[in-house]
């Protein structure tokens, strides 16, 4: 009996907190499908036949830029993940496999970026990017994000490479494979689970970042979705339908992605995090 | 034997070996050095120079730091932002991390149903962009829409409602709590993982010895997850003293009202990028960035030298 009551208490605390976490998001999505009058008149009710309206979405998509922002964000995120995994994997392999001079020192040098935020170098990053003529390009964002994510990527991938049995690479060497082939055809395919973990760590902050898009690609058609929505919201601040629709347009794809992959995402977050 | 021979061949042909090392290491080291380490070093060097009206740079030693800390046009906003940032951090430490710990403790209870569902849903806001979260809460707290007032009224607290974000005395607290609401998932997940790593036998033994769940948590689990708590604290510290997005999204670069929600990140942005009231100042911007760097460095050092070293004695 006491056990039932305490479990009831645990469940009520957890479900109350879950409610607190979800209500703001649900309110925004729900109201984005309602006519202006209903947004203000009955904000807590879900849309009904009489209050249903897509007028907000019409103004968001008639703007036309949102889809462009999405593709920019996808390009930058996918590019960052790809190059972080490729270059990070290569460096992690060399650092954990070959015992050359400066090995430890180089590993230490590469790990500075795990703790020190690259953002603090922004003044020089802007100077550098503009002297390379890369302002307002997706290349600039990708380069900075790759630099930002390499340290953690190398750290996690090294841990995994060390867990791969030594026999596998030795067998490859016996069969006459070159070191390059051993890495690309034996090690890299085995790293897939670790790559998923790194991809999670890279993806969320890059997709959601506001700082570097604001600094490096603030105008024109190279804005990411996070910056684009921020500026769109600034312009349409009085058009509540458009604001709610824009917020929902930004939320829903991430939520769908999250719900599909939540198990892998959380597993990825937890496997590499506490060491 | 054959294995050793192959490895030795790699070592023997020294040129091929060096080319191979360069092939594997050069891309990562180059990108990292050019776009991460060089900017950091250049920013710190920048902070030692003073920009003249004609655009040239003159070495100024620690003069910029002296200006920042003592000249009232700079020191007043700086100390204001620093103080606000300390509050921002304290609120996270005192609200976000205990809530995260409590949620993790509940989720890790043995034989709890729906734990994965709760975990997934509570973590959801953490996934979303700070910009989205900032605007969502701005709408919800807006007196125009009145949702917050309506919700408070439904539990009889309607008279408590204020436009919290627009009032000087509550703007910082409100934005901090919104940030707490969003990021509580991170301490929750980190602590949850640490709790799951504790062997069941330890808890079983404690239960046999007559401890209840609460006692087992406080006397056995809590000491064992101290390393995770240390990690959570240092992550909170670094993220908070580097924060910018939420304040910028909700309150703009001016961090109003009257700079009451100004933190280091927004001060840094305003200083080197400029805004309607002042021109961008690269040297002073770099000086503020260097101060942020030092603050974060101090935090990390305290963690590495004091907390982590002491904790390792307690861990397995």
For the structure shown, list the relevant keywords.
heterodimer, A: 275 residues, mainly alpha, MetI-like fold, B: 316 residues, two-stranded antiparallel ribbon, 2 strands, 74% helix, disordered N terminus
Give the helix/strand layout:
The complex is a heterodimer of chains A (275) and B (316).
Chain A: H1 2-31, H2 36-41, H3 55-63, H4 65-97, H5 103-115, H6 122-131, H7 138-163, H8 166-174, H9 179-190, H10 192-208, H11 211-216, H12 225-235, H13 240-273
Helix pairs in contact in A: 1-13, 3-13, 4-7, 4-10, 4-12, 5-7, 7-10, 8-9, 10-13, 12-13
Chain B: H1 2-12, H2 14-46, E1 49-51, E2 57-59, H3 63-70, H4 72-107, H5 115-127, H6 130-141, H7 147-154, H8 168-183, H9 185-196, H10 200-208, H11 213-224, H12 226-240, H13 245-251, H14 264-273, H15 282-312
Helix pairs in contact in B: 2-15, 3-4, 4-8, 4-9, 4-12, 5-9, 6-8, 6-13, 10-11, 12-15, 14-15
Describe this structure in words.
The complex is a heterodimer of chains A (275) and B (316). Chain A has 275 residues and is mostly helical. Chain A has a domain at 63-219: MetI-like (MetI-like fold, Orthogonal Bundle). Chain A is built from 13 helices and no strands. Chain A has helices spanning 2-31, 36-41, 55-63, 65-97, 103-115, 122-131, 138-163, 166-174, 179-190, 192-208, 211-216, 225-235, 240-273. The longest helix of chain A has 34 residues, at 240-273. In chain A, 44% of the residues are buried. With 316 residues, chain B is an all-alpha fold. Chain B has a domain at 83-265: MetI-like fold, CATH 1.10.3720. Chain B has 15 helices and two strands. In chain B, strands 1-2 form a two-stranded antiparallel sheet. In chain B, α6 (130-141) packs across α8 (168-183) and α6 runs parallel beside α13 (245-251). The longest helix of chain B is centred in the N-terminal third of the chain and has 36 residues, at 72-107. The radius of gyration of chain B is 25 Å and the shape is globular. Chains A and B meet through α1, α4, α5, α6 and α7 of A and α1, α2, α4, α5 and α6 of B.
């Amino acid at each position: 009996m006491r056990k039932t009551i305490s479990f009831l208490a645990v469940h009520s605390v957890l479900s109350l907190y879950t409610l607190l976490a979800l209500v703001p998001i649900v309110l925004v999505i729900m109201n984005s499908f309602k006519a202006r009058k209903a947004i203000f008149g009955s904000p807590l009710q879900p849309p009904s036949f009489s209050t249903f309206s897509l007028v907000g979405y019409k103004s968001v998509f008639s703007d036309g830029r949102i889809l462009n922002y999405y593709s920019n964000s996808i390009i930058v995120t996918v590019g960052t993940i790809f190059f972080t995994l490729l270059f990070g994997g290569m460096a992690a392999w060399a650092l954990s496999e070959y015992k050359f001079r400066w090995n430890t020192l180089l590993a230490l040098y590469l790990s500075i970026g795990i703790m020190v935020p690259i953002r603090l170098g922004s003044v020089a990053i802007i100077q550098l990017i503009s002297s390379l003529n890369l302002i307002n390009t997706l290349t600039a964002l990708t380069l900075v994000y790759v630099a930002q994510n390499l340290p953690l990527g190398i750290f996690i991938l090294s841990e995994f490479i060390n867990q791969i049995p030594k026999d596998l690479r030795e067998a490859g060497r016996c069969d006459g494979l070159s070191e390059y082939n051993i890495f690309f055809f034996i090690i890299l395919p085995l790293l897939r689970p670790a790559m998923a973990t790194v991809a999670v760590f890279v993806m969320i902050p890059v997709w959601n970042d506001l700082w570097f898009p604001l600094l490096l690609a603030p105008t024109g058609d190279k804005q990411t979705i996070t910056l684009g929505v921020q500026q769109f919201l600034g312009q349409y601040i009085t058009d509540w339908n458009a604001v709610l629709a824009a917020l929902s347009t930004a939320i829903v794809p991430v939520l769908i992605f999250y719900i599909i992959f939540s198990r892998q995402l959380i597993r990825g977050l937890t496997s590499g995090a506490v060491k | 034997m054959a294995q050793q021979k192959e490895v030795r061949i790699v070592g023997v042909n020294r040129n091929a070996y060096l080319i191979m090392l360069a092939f594997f290491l050069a891309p990562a080291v180059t990108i990292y050095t050019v776009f991460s380490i060089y900017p950091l070093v250049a920013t710190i060097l920048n902070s030692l120079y003073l920009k003249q009206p004609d655009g040239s740079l003159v070495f100024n030693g620690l003069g910029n730091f002296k200006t920042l800390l003592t000249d009232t046009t700079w020191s007043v906003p700086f100390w204001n932002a620093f103080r606000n940032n300390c509050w921002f951090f304290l609120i996270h430490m005192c609200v976000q991390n205990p809530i995260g710990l409590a949620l993790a403790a509940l989720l890790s209870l043995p034989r709890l149903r729906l734990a994965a569902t709760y975990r997934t849903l509570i973590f959801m806001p953490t996934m979303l962009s700070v910009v989205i979260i900032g605007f969502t809460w701005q709408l919800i707290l807006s007196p125009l829409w009145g949702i917050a007032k309506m919700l408070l009224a439904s539990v009889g607290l309607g008279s408590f409602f204020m436009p919290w974000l627009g009032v000087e005395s509550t703007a910082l607290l409100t934005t901090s709590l919104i940030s707490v609401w969003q990021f509580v998932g991170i301490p929750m997940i980190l602590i949850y993982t640490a709790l799951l790593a504790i062997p069941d036998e330890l808890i079983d033994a404690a239960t046999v010895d007559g401890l209840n769940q609460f006692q087992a948590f406080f006397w056995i689990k809590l000491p064992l997850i101290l390393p995770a708590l240390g990690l959570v604290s240092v992550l909170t510290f670094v993220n908070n003293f580097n924060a910018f997005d939420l304040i910028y999204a909700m309150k703009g670069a001016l961090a109003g009202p009257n700079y009451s929600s100004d933190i280091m990140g927004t001060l840094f942005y305003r200083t080197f990028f400029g805004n309607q009231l002042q021109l961008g100042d690269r040297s002073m911007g770099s000086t503020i960035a260097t101060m942020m760097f030092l603050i974060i460095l101090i935090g990390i050092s305290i963690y590495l030298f004091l907390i982590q070293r002491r904790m390792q004695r307690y861990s397995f």
